[in-house]
Amino acid sequence: MRVLFEEIRFRTARKRELVDLTEEVRSIVGRWNVRDGILLVFAPHATASLVLNENEEGLVKDILELFERLIPEGAGYAHDRIDDNAHAHLRSSIAKPFVLIPVREGELVLGTWQRIFFIEHDGPRYERRVVVEYVGT
Amino acid sequence: MRVLFEEIRFRTARKRELVDLTEEVRSIVGRWNVRDGILLVFAPHATASLVLNENEEGLVKDILELFERLIPEGAGYAHDRIDDNAHAHLRSSIAKPFVLIPVREGELVLGTWQRIFFIEHDGPRYERRVVVEYVGT
Amino acid sequence: MRVLFEEIRFRTARKRELVDLTEEVRSIVGRWNVRDGILLVFAPHATASLVLNENEEGLVKDILELFERLIPEGAGYAHDRIDDNAHAHLRSSIAKPFVLIPVREGELVLGTWQRIFFIEHDGPRYERRVVVEYVGT
């Protein structure tokens, strides 16, 4: 049994944005030379989410606007009395900070249109981290 | 350590619907004759979700209506300029395409009212797939 | 390979509330004396959620109000004809009843502001259960 970790570190440039981590995650899994298992992609942050979906410019815009519409910034939140990012915490509570992906014969089992996105809800940030963890053979 | 896979393939009949996969998943796990581990039920699709909840006719209707109310179809999404299913991608981004379930002494650890649902957000589809993966003893 | 289980049982006092399980989960993992793996925290309930976020009094209030605003109680749901808790089932369908956390060198890999919350959507309840499961070395 193998349990493997790697951490991706990156900065975010905008207040809110989607960062496509698919190729970096795929390349980590490739270097590990694993067989069958599961992959946990986890953001140790309370103001970010991880999502699997299509990397299409219009859809990326739609996803950001959906969060803004459902959970608007500055809508009288109690947490904003001590900070200014309640909306970001709430977005991360609903769209959680992790995804799981099967790994089979060394390959991520992703659908044609599934990409691994980190969603920055409270940027820009000098350093964001994503833990990539594998459990399997 | 055992890592086991099986894929469920099925067609969906309606534009949006819930498909209860519980018995099929339970029967797969039964055939595997496993002991203790975790089960990942994963849809390799960007316009579907997996959810654990009660299979009651009224609630099934409520779940579909909730998605329609929170993320209505055709509400001016940018992605709809190149396709017509932005709402389905957005619903899958919020209600993710996987669930995890503990397996203990060969049995799924599910609450009395928890059933495993595949949610079709963009049907009907000739073929939908769900990967059932086990990691454990 | 080790697969370990422990169950946390507790009662909830209010109709809806957040219960911070972080210290109890951390103490379970500490007693297990494990190394590297993943932790599944799973509620076998159809009217509860598990969420990772900050334990700040204002934010806790904001999270409960967000659910009330997005999925109000008694808004004409079909399931309410046979029960009175459709809103709680719907909230659990969106904000799922599990979280995953990496465990590295025996420690939970959580961000500074990430706490493990059980969300009661349909209390008070005499007994709620959370399954804590570890798979790793």
> Could you state the CATH homologous superfamily of chain A?
YjbQ-like
Q: Helical content of chain A, roughly?
A: 10-25%
As an assembly, this protein is homotrimer
Mean pLDDT of chain A: 98
Question: Biggest interface between protein chains, with counts per chain?
Answer: A-B, 34 and 32 residues
According to CATH, the fold-level topology of chain A is: Jelly Rolls
Q: What's the helix-strand series of chain A?
A: EEHEEHHEEEE
Task: Provide the CATH architecture of chain A.
Answer: Sandwich
CATH class of chain A: Mainly Beta
Q: Evaluate the radius of gyration of chain A.
A: 16 Å
Please characterize this protein's 3D structure:
Three copies of one chain form a homotrimer. By secondary structure, chain A is an alpha+beta fold. Chain A has one domain (2-136): YjbQ-like (Jelly Rolls, Sandwich), CATH 2.60.120.460. Chain A has three helices and eight strands; from the N terminus they run ββαββααββββ. A five-stranded antiparallel sheet of chain A has the order 1-8-3-5-6, covered by helices on one side. In chain A, strand 5 (98-104) and strand 6 form a beta hairpin. The mean pLDDT of chain A is 98. Chains in contact: A-B, A-C, B-C.
